[in-house]
Amino acid sequence: MVRTRIDVGRVRAAREMIDPVFLDTPLYRCEALEPELGCAVSVKLETANPVRSFKGRGTEVVASLLAGPGAGPGAGSRAAVCASAGNLGQALAWSGRRRGLDVTVVASRSAPAAKLDRIRALGARLELVDGDFEAARERAADVARHDGVRLVEDSLDIETCEGAATIGLELADAAPAFDAVLIALGGGALATGVGQVLKTLAPGVEVICVQPLGAPAMTLSWRRGRVVTTGPTDTIADGVAGRRPIPVVLDDLLQVADDAVLVREESITAGMRLLLDHAGLVVEPSAALGVAAVLEDRDRFAGRHVATIVCGGNVDMDAYRRWVGIAPGIASGHGA
Amino acid sequence: MVRTRIDVGRVRAAREMIDPVFLDTPLYRCEALEPELGCAVSVKLETANPVRSFKGRGTEVVASLLAGPGAGPGAGSRAAVCASAGNLGQALAWSGRRRGLDVTVVASRSAPAAKLDRIRALGARLELVDGDFEAARERAADVARHDGVRLVEDSLDIETCEGAATIGLELADAAPAFDAVLIALGGGALATGVGQVLKTLAPGVEVICVQPLGAPAMTLSWRRGRVVTTGPTDTIADGVAGRRPIPVVLDDLLQVADDAVLVREESITAGMRLLLDHAGLVVEPSAALGVAAVLEDRDRFAGRHVATIVCGGNVDMDAYRRWVGIAPGIASGHGA
Questions:
Q1: Nearest residue on chain B to A42, judged by CA atoms?
Q2: According to CATH, what is the number of the domain A55-152?
């Protein structure tokens, strides 16, 4: 029996706190991808919602509890701050706005402008810091201490894991159909949440985490069984680019992941291009990690049925066009 | 009381025959679109399924009945033929394959190659004809007569309307939220099906059909209250490009549509571009008709909340890149 911080009963309870717009997302075979990938592929699509990523599942749980009848008195108890590469901030802003919470998001100045614009548009206070995501994490903690408001820490806070884990409930319902689930690995909320639910409800399904070679901290930590921090990350997959794994999250990941693999940047862009050209899906780099993993190891997956969680679709369109637009169609059709 | 061929009780029964992969599709606000459109916009997303269009809802009903215990004896009763601009053919091939039906699709040689490739990949027999969709319709009828198999006629066959109408049930559940629904108008199954359900369950919602100026037959017919046929169509919206409205479908449309509007080609491509850039959605031209209608008449919709059905996402990527790719990002980022 796998024992982590995540409890399937609590995940079911978390589901009840989440706005249905984030639940029961599409899960379907994409046969048009299969000739290129050499295996059966299903996608779990987490981009067709108001914040275009799975993060709303977790922030709904956080915000429900903050705004609920059990919340403490005083203004501080109706306020929250988080560090974000963009998606968590958007989601927390969305969940907070509809409950009248005061939300502050701290992000790196280098986060995608599209994500930052949406955070502002959703009414959150946005504070930009120099440096990377880890610098934003430190600053968010300072703000929380100084203002006495709730610090929402992705992957560390159990609500973010339980929210993400509700994807696992939906996958488990369909699990007899597939052999492996490919999960983007960043802070670990998605991987540990979904992993725990699958290990409990569908233990035959292989849980494979995927991270960019340019941001390998959690994967290296999983492989060595202890926290490994790294220097600056170097990947377009901003959503998973952390350098300092959280020890308790690593402990959980060690329980639920069957494997953790690293993929090259060119495989990530190739995955994004495949998802666009053959599945009609606009995805951010982190959401193409699963497809990238298959591209790099076709033999491993040949003849099997994999499900991949398309976890987000927030991209700067200029960057996206560069990543996927360089195809035969462009040059010939440019002026048409 | 609106009386058409479509009965809400039968639509509810149809829902039970449809594979859940086509049901309960995402419906959500796209706030990022709203500054450009000047009104609140929700999308009903019918592209995140194995055939990337809403047509699976109808073909599931058709194929369930053909394969069911009530089906007649003989090989002919387990076979079907349809004419298709591409989406119906894909959907019928998908629904037929999983029930062991023998499916033939007749399409115009000028239909998008991406759609034709998928029809073949799904195991249907594909017959190409010169001429347009109307030529394909005639040929499909010949095949049905000659081979003694079921002819599936989109919009005329009540199952195709009832299947499409299940979208109306899902919209009606959320209907208090919006003032108008924008529906692509082609043969009329989608518009009459969804329209009838809304008029029954959410009569306060305005039902607005949208067709390209280059394929206006049904809209002109609706305006004049009698069937108007046209010469050759001239639109990139292949999915709605018919020339000969079906009289009984027009009768239904006259009952349920509050308005039918025509939009220019440049509004359709502008709509596709907006949906890509601000909502991350790859849509085929027919699926951008609703957004195009708002773009052409912002005053009409100002301050209101509209829902638009994103009815399909099957595009030839080369053509799609031409339609949406000519943006500032391309030129500067081409070699990056």
A1: B50
A2: 3.40.50.1100
